[in-house]
Amino acid sequence: MDKNYEYIRNRIKKLRDERGWSNARLAREADIGISTLSYWFRAKAKPEIAALIRVCKAFGITIGQFFNDDLNSITLTDDQKEYLSGFNQINQAEKAMVLNMIKTLIENRQNSN
What we know:
Layout lengths: L2 H17 L3 H8 L3 H8 L7 H11 L3 H4 L11 H10 L4 H21 L1
């Protein structure tokens, strides 16, 4: 398998490990089969772009950020990093609740001004 796919596999593993996710969690969050991940990690299959985009979405990053080793080039405050770290550890239903709460807070602030 060529170096590009080796990079992709290693990058997925690194991002997964940074979040403390298992392969099962990543598969669930990205809506891909765990056997698919297994094939990727054993270099038995190459990720298709659609699946890679779902993996990026699960990680909360863009495809461009995936290929940028230095995610810190995006300047975040320590609070923002903490929020994103926590956000990446909750499930989709919980993420929807958090986003709804943020929208409500913004609306309330706008209505009070």
